[in-house]
Amino acid sequence: MLLAPALMVVGLSRAASAQQLDGRLERIGTLEPLAGxxxxxxxxxxxxxxxxxxxxSGGFVxxxxxxxxxxxxxxxxxxxPWSTEPITxxxxxxxxxxxALEDNPVRLPDIEIRAAGNRCGIRPGDSDVMARLLTExxxxxxxxxxxxxxxxxxxxxxxxxxxxxxxxTPGERERHNAFGTATxxxxxxxxxxxxxxxFVHDGPPYGVPEELVTERGPVFYGPDERVLFADWFLxxxxxxxxxxxxxxxxxxxxxxxxxxxRRSVDISGTLKLDRETLELRGITFRYTGLGAWxxxxxAGGELSFRRLRSGTLIIDRWSLRAPIPLFRPGREPGxxxxxxxxxxxxxxxxxxxxxxxxxxxxxxxxxxxx
Length: 370
What we know:
- The protein contains 5 helices and 23 strands.
- It has helices at residues 110-114, 129-150, 191-197, 225-228, 231-235; strands at residues 7-10, 19-27, 32-33, 38-43, 48-53, 59-64, 68-75, 82-83, 87-89, 94-101, 118-120, 153-162, 174-180, 200-201, 219-220, 237-241, 251-258, 266-274, 280-288, 300-307, 313-326, 334-350, 356-357.
C-alpha cells in the first residue's frame, strides 16, 4: 500500500496574467529537493494540458490555458507515479504548491527478469516486467526531450562530421565546438509518416523545402520519444530482455526488432537501463531492410544518457552513420561510403544564470562501434 505524500498549499492566490502553478517537489521528511522529475498538468477529463521538468531546486512552473479543475501527476525515474487531489484554479489565479513525496521505488525481482521472455505489442503501463522497463525508458526520454524543448540549459559541445573523399576513400573528420541550447541529435519525422514510408525516404528531408535541398539521395531518419512509443511502432516490434548475462551486471538490455511482416526499411536496437535505478543509460539502433548495396548492420546510431548532479537527464554523447549510394547509369546503386557525425557534451550551464552544472559520476556506457 502506498502512503499518500503530504500536500502543502502556500499563498493561495494573487493577480497574474494567466492561471499558473508555481511548485516545488521535496522528499518527505527531509525537504530535499526532487530534481529532474516530469510534472504533468492533467485536466478534469484526464487529458494532459502541459508538462515541465523540475529544476535543481525542485521547482516547476505550469500554466493552464483556462480556469478549471486539474491534477498534477509526477513521474520520476525508478519510482511509481504520483498524483495530487483535484486543484481548482480560478481565472488569473496564481498558486504556490509544495509537494512532499515519498520514495516508492519500482521493484523488479531477479526472478521476474529471468522470466521476461519475448513480448510483441507491448505497452508502457502494462503490469509485466518488460512493460515496466519500457515505462521507465519512456519517462527518461520524456524528461530529456522536455529539457531540450524548454531550453533552460546551455551546452558546450564538441561535434564532428566525416564524409568520404571524391574517390570514395574515408575523409578526415571535421571538428567543431559550439555553445548554446541543445537539439535532439537524431533527425526524425512524425511517427505517422515513418509508419507509411519507413525510416528511409527518397524525398527531401522532413521540414526542408524542396528548393533548399542541395544534395539528392535517400534520407535516413532515426527514433525519438514520439517514434519509440507510438502505437504503430510498439505493434510492429518485439522486445526481448537479455537474461543470459551475469545477474550482477549493472545494466539491463532490452532488444527490439521489427516483425518479419514489415517490408519497408525499419530499425532494430537496444534500450540500456541501470539495473538498480532503472535510469535509461543508452539507445542503439541499426537499419534493417536496406538494399543489397549497403554493408550489413553497418548503418545506425547510438545515444548515451547521463544525469547531471542537479538531477536532470541529458544526452551526453551520440554518433550516427548513414550509407551514401553510388549512382551509375543503367546499373543498380553501389556503395560509395558513409556519412558520419557525432558529438559529446563538454560543459553544461544553467541558461539564465550561466552557473555550471556538474555531470554525475555515473560511468558512461559509451562503446560505439560505428
